[in-house]
Amino acid sequence: MILGIAKEMVTPCVLSKMAGYASRTETFKGIHDDLYVKACLMKNETDQTFIIGFDIIQFSHILNEKIQDYLYTKYSIKKEQVVISYSHTHAGPEVKSFKQRDNKLIYEDFLFERTKCCIDKVFLNLFDGDAYYAVSTGDWNVNRRKIVDNEVIMAPNYDAIKDRDLWMLILKDSDGDIRGIFYNYSCHPVTLSTTLFISSEYPGRINQLLEAKYYGCIAGFLQGSAGNMRPLISAKGNKFNPCSFEEVDRMALSMTAAIESVINKAAYEKIQPVLKAVSFIIPAEIEALSKEQFEQMAQTETSGMKERYKYVAEHYDEIKDVVDIHAGLVKLSNDLYLAYMGGEVCYEIKLIVQNVLKDKKLIFLGYNEAITYIPSDRIIQEGGYEGSRAQLMAGFKGPFKKGIDKTVEEYFRKNYESLK
Question: Which domain holds residue 202?
């Protein structure tokens, strides 16, 4: 197999607001650790897969399309062969509004230019080798949806289901040296809520540790079904608390130890590459509220949602009743698949996709693009932030309709059959 891997720094070089919390109105105070884009290529005689991971909050599909166009125009890699994931760090820059008119720097353009550099470096760093995969399990996250007095609140739910799988893709050259590690886990990088320092959070620290351990290796993180998963270190009894960099470090050390244990024991399997891929759009229907309801909410709301409700009311007829969720499926080998979806995908959605693939092994990525939370039917029925309020915050006419489980299942099944 032909492999390639590279990284490029994407830390902002001018002041900007920080992402992830509406209460943050200040610009960042400093840079604790740098942000990166990491990319790898896996190629056999007939097909290829190109994977990109970002240390940023998230971005719309516009950037994905620009990246896909660049890869196709310069390197003949088709859009369905490109997998993009954002770590969703809440200690990074606010992407959409990062514009500095004085020095003409716009972060989206800066990000694209750095990504092109990273892509070009991959093709300057090609080598013969093999790819391997492994899965470990661990308790580094906790479900954040808890029902109290018939109301869903955001609090640690130690008894609820959660994604415990830590997946790894390990790239070795023909000498047997580890040149790349891409790993996948489902957990919000959301512990540093009170800091105003740029950080790649726990995934970035894991990358640092792995790259220090395996000289010449590039490590990258691929976010999973983290919509309703938060770091266990931030769970303090019945509530979530901000964490220190020392606590983030302890979480990263534990996860790194799990990855190193797999490598030390050679508890991984060689990928016999197929690398067939398909991309598609999942149409998710909205349970639309009336225009009059939004007008009323805009008058009575006292929080930051007031302007959002006002916008929806004023543009009601322009806003669609169906949300397009970009998704895809890559057949890495006959037994191993990689699936991805846009939005902050909740764990229950991953379980639906796994059920489609049955006994096949699945590496599942959310956060392919910024949409909103992607809940299951049960979460929609329960309500709460992921089930209803998040969609209103995203500027939709309402929450998703029940039936999204069937729609996700239908589209993944159809495309899985096409790859079979």
Answer: 2-270
